[in-house]
Amino acid sequence: MKKLLFIFAFALISMLFMGCPYGSDVPIDKTPSVKIDANLIGVWSPTGFDSTSTYTVSKTDDYNYLIKKESTTGNETTVTKYKAFLSDAGGKTFINIWADDDSQTPKYYFYRLGWSADNKQLTMYEVTDNIKEAFTSSDDLKKFIKDNCSLSFFYNKDTVAYSRK
Predict the structure, then answer these.
(1) Which helix (H) or strand (E) is 138 found in, with range?
(2) What pLDDT band is residue 19 in, cutting at 50, 70 and 90?
(3) Which of 88, 97, 101, 115 has the fewest CB neighbours in a 10 Å radius?
(4) CATH class name, domain 2-164
(5) CA distance linking residue 111 with residue 156, whole number of Å
(6) H-type helices in 17-90, by residue range?
């Protein structure tokens, strides 16, 4: 039963990071500098496919978010928590996301954010997992993103749209 629960939890975490976006040992910004976007706060659900997951985004301070993913299968609900903050690179807004666990060294994942005209739908564009560079400083990572973020192949083809509930 524990093995089945572990596999289920791993599958749920994988759903958040569909297509395995690029992961890094450093965030885009060493210290968050983009203030909270009030449009992100609230409850969101994926659109375009049948999903039993909802994401509750809350503010932890002026720069950081807590994202709580609740997934329901049958009578069982699993909760996974993530931390996040926004970065601006090349005139585009990116979200830095990492698991809210006891890990000594978090792995950061990056998505470019896009909004519908009415701010009721959010689209997340995964930074491609084809990046082979490993960055040891946020400054180097941010420069790399600025230099490449306008290129279509900088993003995986998988995008996920979320609607406010």
Answers:
(1) helix 138-148
(2) low
(3) 101
(4) mainly beta
(5) 10
(6) none
CA 68, CA 2: separation in Å to the nearest integer? 22
Domain ranges of the chain: 2-164
Task: Determine if the pTM surpasses 0.90.
Answer: no
Q: What is the pLDDT of residues 61-115, one digit of tens each?
A: 999 999 999 999 889 999 999 999 999 999 999 999 999 988 778 999 999 999 9
Pairwise CA distance, residues 97 & 82, whole Å = 7
What are the structure tokens assigned to 134, written together?
């490993």
Cα gap 140→138, rounded to integer Å:
5
Structure-token pair, residue 140: 């180097």
Say how far apart CA 23 and CA 30 lie, in whole Å: 15
The length of the chain in residues reads 165
